[in-house]
Amino acid sequence: FKRPLVIGLVFVFGFEQMALIIPGYIRYATVSFYLQSLVPHAVMGEGVVSLLQSLVQQKASLGTALVMLIGIGAAFVVMAMRVIARREYVLEQ
Q: pTM for this structure?
């Protein structure tokens, strides 16, 4: 992408927060769901969003959360390695 920072910010502050509020299975596609399953007593904040999250809150088991976070991390490391391996870096002299 030409502007990966903008896409990353939209993902973190847009999709991740909205997916945790929306009822259904979409929350299983977020990193925040598995992180919140590891730390169930942490409060995300105050306001309407945190109130809605507490109403529809579900948690994954500890094993599932760890396996998914390790899998997500490994997938992104592999993708980063591919990007670096395919890119041509030229050293200026």
A: 0.67
CA distance 63 to 43: 22
Instruction: Quick: pLDDT tens for 7-58.
Output: 888 887 888 778 877 777 888 888 888 888 888 665 555 666 666 656 556 7
| Three-state SS at 40 | coil
Instruction: Write the burial class of residue 27 (CB in 10 Å: 0-12 exposed, 13-18 middle, 19+ buried).
Output: buried
User: Of 70, 10, 9, 8, which Cα lies nearest the Cα of 34?
Assistant: 70
Integer Rg of the chain from CA: 17
Evaluate whether 38 touches 62 at the Cβ level (below 8 Å): yes
Residue 32 to residue 13: CA distance in whole angstroms: 11
Summarize pLDDT for 57-91 with one digit per residue, the tens: 677 788 999 999 999 999 999 999 998 898 877 77
